[in-house]
Amino acid sequence: MSYTTVYALWPGERHEELEDLRNAWGTAPVVWGKMSARYCGIEEMAALANIEKLWPLWKRLDIKKSHRAVLLMTYDDHYVGRENYTRAAADIRAFLADFSFHPNRVNHWLRIAEIFETNPDCPAIGFQWTSVGDNPWSGEWNEEKEEYEQPDWACKCEMYAELDALDTAQEGGTA
Questions:
Q1: Cα dihedral 152/158/163/164 (nearest 10)
Q2: For the chain, what is the domain count?
């Protein structure tokens, strides 16, 4: 069974596993299904087949910022800086309050909020949403050294910095 890994990040230096969440269907796909159903009129289970309609939703100011934040949190190469742990937990809890969830389906978002609320002693938290894919916090494999290189941190993004910058630009009419 696939799993989601929560990582402690030291951007430009290293990453360490904080926790594995068994069954990755209880993480990013939960958000994708709910957002697709509410904002795109797409059945939850069809979210992955219609992902191109889902990805741009984080840019829409007519959607609650907490919803957009949780969606953006599910993007590869996005992380939450320590200064935003409390904000991330609050956004997750608001998201959970705004949507209904089947009690017999896996949903790890409450646990993810709790992880942020513990304020782990690391500069950032990132995710590998499914163990089936590559770890976005590992760079390319170096055959000679027999280890992973550092990822290209220029391609990584603190998600709240990106979300807030977009909102400021759109509200100011420059986006």
A1: -120
A2: 1
The Cα 43–Cα 37 span in angstroms is: 5
**Interacting residues of 30 by C-beta distance below 8 A, sequence separation 6+:** 101, 105, 106, 107, 108, 109
The burial class, CB within 10 Å (0-12 / 13-18 / 19+), for 82 is middle
The residue segments making up the domain with residue 69 are 3-171
DSSP 145: T
Location of structure tokens 């290209």: 152
- From first to last of the 175 residues of the chain, give the pLDDT tens digit: 799 999 999 998 999 999 999 999 999 999 999 999 999 999 988 888 889 999 999 999 999 999 999 999 999 899 999 999 999 999 999 999 999 999 899 999 999 999 999 999 999 999 999 988 888 998 888 889 888 888 888 889 999 999 999 999 987 755 4
Task: Tell me if residue 139 falls in helix, strand or coil.
Answer: coil
Q: What are the tokens at 137? A: 């916090």
Query: In this structure, what token pair is assigned to residue 111?
Result: 């646990």
